[in-house]
Each structure stands twice: as structure tokens, then as C-alpha cells.
Structure prediction request, 541 residues.
Amino acid sequence: MNTKLVKISVNDSTEKYTEAACLLKDGQVVGIPTETVYGLAGNAYSEDAVKRIFEAKGRPQDNPLIVHISEFSELYELVSEVPETAKALADAFWPGPLTMILPKSDKVPLCVTAGLNTVAVRCPAHPIANKLIKVAGIPLAAPSANLSGKPSPTKAEHVYKDLNGRIPMVIDGGECEEGVESTVITLATPVPKLLRPGNITLKQLKSVLGEVSVDDAVLNPLKEGEKVSSPGMKYKHYSPDASVVVVKGSYDKFKEYVNLKFCDGTYAMVFKGEGEGISAPVLEYGSVDDYRQLSHALFDSLRYLDEIGAKRCFVRCPDEENDDNLAVLNRLLRAASFDVVNLDKKTLIGLTGKTGSGKSTVSALFKENGAYVIDGDVVARRVLVEDKTLLSKLENAFSGILNSDGALNRKALAAKAFSSPENTDKLNSIIHPAINDYIHNEVKQAFENYDVVVVDAAAIIESGFADECDFLLVAHAPFDVRKERILKRDSLSEEDALIRMNGQKDDNFYLSKADFIINNFPPYDLNEEFKKAEKFIYGGH
Ligand code: TXA
Ligand code: MG
Prediction:
């Protein structure tokens, strides 16, 4: 099949539309411009036409289509009821980039809605789309006119590239103004729910409807087996051939990160005015504070990456605090298959291990790599000197453990506290919360200057602090290896070494709670193990 490219201008007369209208009335499909993205249109009442749409795009059969109308009154034929909320939304935003989901009428074939009893309807503002619906005199089912999985087309040439030979005609009406697909909201739920963000923003929807909920799938990947509100959300989407990585964090951190990762075929997508100091070639996609500029350029930029043969592209992430950016964020996250690097993230790592496992060596490696390390032993010693409330609590519990000047008599405390397991538990229940308070404070201060804080503490599991850490790492080595190490290191007698070692909990207590185990014994190489731990924590990019 030859695909005809027909240019139509906004002021062209009705005759210009006749050929496309005839094809549509005949059950054929036509690529058409809308203000959001190009659509692949067909007669919504014709099962043949709908079948052709699915075939041309390679679209999964269970993903329903949006039906396009030219004015509000045409809605009544497509839905079984028109609630007040629909009237209010249409008043505010139609014609325009808003799709409403409502209970369908019997006239809408089930192949359009993929078997659902609701139908998605939109009244496009683009004068060419609008006029074509009028001239054809039928509602047009139209998904975005891309091959399924690819970024949506925002120019006629994009449609031509994807669907050349598969459809009879593409109408070239110039570049789409919005650049991302319409906002999709369902009114078929008790509280209206945003299913797909677009350039009619959440704020705008709320200004008309009051309460609007946001579907989880808007910004989160689907969990396995999860039921979706909108079938389109479960498919791979908007993906260029290049792999896209969304990078959160300041421009300085972005620059540093991209330069570190730079290799052949790497590109960077940045905000307007950025790009200086980045080794990779850059594409600007709009001002950081203008979501309409960003959405306008997004898909075009993603498609451009394929044109220039990019292998990988790091993309600056728009401000997540600003709901106006939801549409761009939603598309970017999917284009990246949720591959996100967060350079602003503060990571709290708990590190523990049995005596002789080498956890101090591991914490030294973290320090070398720029982390701030808190040593639990050092904190414990400080607390026992500085925290007068703690000392009086200990005196109350064990009596006779303070010197005449009020300082702690460590020997006396050890003698009493380790005299029985009950007393040891009592000591821990008093001392652990105090140490945790000190560590909390130090972590908070450290996060002002560091992105990664490591708390290295022998009793981090028992004290409960491990539960607050993002990751718990356990340094591990077998009994004999550890014994040899502490004999050498601490010049202990074998008997003392065994007492110390046997006073600790068994291996499984530590290993079963670890998020990651660092094997620190032959034949493992500690540096390699450390790199694996880093990859586990920071991701594998
Ligand atoms: O801007 C747009 O909406 C463009 C232009 C061409 O109008 N069209 C478009 O269609 O983006 P499409 O098919 O690419 O996306 C339609 C989305 C899909 O995610 C689909 O699952 C969802 O709308 N959808 C359609 N009918 C639905 C229904 N009854 N219930 C829930 N979701 C529905
Ligand atoms: Mg689509």
C-alpha cells in the first residue's frame, strides 16, 4: 500500500478534506494532526476500521481507543449518561486536550473499548481534526499514530516513518502544539481519577471538580500481577531505541555524573541554557520552569535520538514537586522503563559483622569513597562520658557504678552488667536508646554535607537502628578466618579470643537480616565485593 502524504492548512476549504473523509467513511484509517499528538483515525462505529487501527500500529488488543468528537453534543450518542461533572469539564476544557471516561452506550462497539463497559471520549481543539470529524460525519476512534511502544508522533514525518506502507494516508497539519497526549480522567469511579496526566493539569481539573485522585500507575511501575485502571499503562511506552536514564539532582551533580559515565553514543537531554561543561553532546528540551515547552519538545527529542543513532541518553528530571510537570515526568519515566538515578538521594547504610569479619576495613573503604562514617564504639564511649541522664539511669539500675567524681567506673559496670544475661539485657535497654539518639543527631548533621552516611556498629541489629537504615550490610567471614585475624590483630590468648567470639550471636542472626553480605575471606577479593555492594546500593548504571 502506498501512503499518501497530504498537506492541509487551517484555512483550506472543505474540498481538501473530501478524500480523507471518504477513506474514513469507507472503513479505512488516516493519520491526522491533533493539538496533542498525531492520531491514527478510523470510524469508531466500524469494526473493520477499528481492526485496521490495531493492525497498523501493532497495538495489543486489550488496549482501548479514544473516540474523538467535534462538539459536546455528540457525546450523548457515545455514552449511557452524561454526569454534571462531564458537563463542567467540557465547559472548561473542550475542545482541548482532555479525555473523559464514561459508561459507554450500546452504539460503541466493544472492540473500541477492548471489552470494557466504559468509553474514552475527547473533543480535539485542532481545527483540522475538528473539521475532519465534521466533514466525515462520524466519531473517530484514534490512538496515537506511532508503532506501538514508540514515542508518540508530533510531526507528520514521524507518522510517515512509523506507518509508511501500512496506511493509505497521512494528513500533514504541521507540528503538534502540546506534544504529549491528552489528560485522561475517569468519571466512572466514585471520585474522579486521573489516569494519564497531560497538559490539562491536575490543578486545572481540581479547580473544576474539587477532589481528584491520581492513579498509582501515573508515576510508579506496575507491580507484578497488579490490576490496571487504564490498560495502556501496562505496556512499554514512548521508548526510543536508545536507552533513556532519568537523572534527578542539581545540574552540577548531573554534569559530574554524565562526564563520569560518558562513552561513545552517550547523549544528554538538558534544560534550556544548560549544557556547558558536559562532555556528551546535548539536546535542550525547554525551560526548566515551563512544562508546556518541555512537553512540546519531549517526543520529538526522543525520536531525534534514534535518528542520530544515540545509544544512551541521560535526561534532566523536571521538578517533581510541581504537579504541572506530571505529564512530562510520566512519559519520561516510561521512556526510561523507570530507570532513574537519584543523585540527591541521601543514603543511610548500617554496617555490622562479627568480631574479625573486617567491618572496619569495609567502613574505611566507604570513607575513601566519600561517605561519612560513624563508628558506634566511639559514640558509645562519648555517650558514657557526656550523657549525665544516662549515667544516673545506670546508677539507679546497677548502683555503685559511679566514681566519687560522678564519672563512670567502667570495670564496676562491666562486672555487674555482664554477671547474667538478664543484667546484660537491662544494660542494653538503657544504653541503646541513648546511643541511637546520639547517632541520629550525627547522621542528621552529616547529611548536610554528605550524601552517604555509614553507621558501623556491632550491635546495630539489637539496638533497632538497623531498621532505620536504607540498607544493612553484613561483613562476613568463617570462624577460623576470624579467629586468626583477632589473634594477630589484638594479640589475645586463644582462650580470650574464644570467649570474645562465643559471646556473639550465631552467623545466621546476622546473615538472615542482611540486605547485602560482603564476603571478606579467601578466595573473595574485598575490593570486588565492595564494588558489588556499591552497585547493589546505588544501582547498576
Ligand atoms: O491526545 C490523545 O489522547 C491522543 C490523540 C490522538 O487524541 N490519543 C491517544 O490515544 O493518546 P492512545 O490510544 O495512545 O491512548 C489512549 C489511552 C490508553 O492509555 C488507554 O488505555 C486509555 O487511554 N483508555 C482508553 N479507553 C479507556 C477506558 N475505557 N478506560 C480506561 N482507559 C482507557
Ligand atoms: Mg499511544
Observations:
- Residues 143-144, 152 surround magnesium ion (ligand 2) (CB under 6 Å).
- The longest helix spans residues 421-447.
